[in-house]
Specification:
- This protein is of the alpha/beta class.
- The protein has a single domain, classed as 3-Layer(aba) Sandwich (Rossmann fold).
- The chain is built from eight helices and ten strands.
- The strands form two sheets. It has a seven-stranded mixed sheet.
- β5, α6 and β6 form a beta-alpha-beta unit.
Length: 232
């Protein structure tokens, strides 16, 4: 399965690149509220490894899409979980009770109102991180944390793309911008956040993979996940 996903990430021919909004409009009806491929399963396992206890916490699933992390938070006893996303078609697929349309750059939430922010595989769609990290920090309570995952920059610097295939067989790439560790560190620091943990799961850790790209080595990291904390 991971081999198949890796083939989908490869860029061995030119594909039409869609904005994230256009891409998710096409993709929404195929996007269930759970990890539906091996890469997402690896990302989710990595995020879960960074979770604080969620029982009784106020949780924001930022760029929630179909609601995967909000549902996980509710299952783990969160006081409430709210999902925010800028894609209306994705929100229509989302079974969370609390959900709303919002960009990550301007959140409709009170300052210092959230205990835990969960943001999975979303900020790579943005050209700049500063505004989103500033808003994440603003809504976090003191001593709150934010977990943010992204596709590893090594994947895209090696020429890969994130792609999906529609029900009528068309394959598109989704806009993605490479953000290095230093970029997240700097954007977080500007926003008053510090990174206290980073995980980078690698291809081949969980199972043997026959790589579609002969130049890709076993051990190449595919996901990077950060835990940011707000000390004051």
């Amino acid at each position: 399965m991971l081999k198949t996903v890796w083939r989908r990430l490869r860029s061995n021919r030119s594909r039409t690149i869609l904005s994230s909004l256009a891409a998710y409009e096409h993709w929404a009806n195929q996007y269930p509220p759970h990890a539906h491929n091996a890469v997402m399963k690896a990302e989710e396992a990595t995020m879960r490894a960074l979770f604080p206890p969620l029982s009784g916490k106020k949780v924001l699933d930022l760029a929630c899409g179909s609601g995967r992390y909000g549902l996980i938070a509710s299952a783990q006893g969160a006081a409430f979980s709210i999902g925010l996303d800028n894609s209306v078609p994705m929100l229509r697929q989302n079974p969370m009770e609390l959900r709303a349309v919002s960009t990550s750059e301007k959140l409709p939430l009170a300052s210092s109102s959230i205990d835990v922010v969960l943001c999975g595989l979303a900020l790579g769609h943005l050209r700049e991180l500063d505004a989103s990290m500033s808003e994440i920090s603003r809504v976090m309570k003191p001593n709150a944390c934010a977990l943010v995952s992204d596709f590893h920059p090594f994947i895209f610097l090696n020429g890969q793309q994130r792609t999906f295939t529609t029900t009528d067989g068309q394959t598109f790439a989704v806009e993605h911008y490479v953000h290095l560790y230093a970029d997240y560190h700097q954007a977080g620091r500007k926003a008053g956040l510090r990174i206290d943990a980073v995980l980078e799961p690698r291809l081949g850790q969980l199972q043997e993979v026959q790589f579609a790209d002969a130049d890709t080595r076993t051990g190449t990291p595919i996901i990077i996940a950060y835990r940011f904390v707000k000390d004051v």
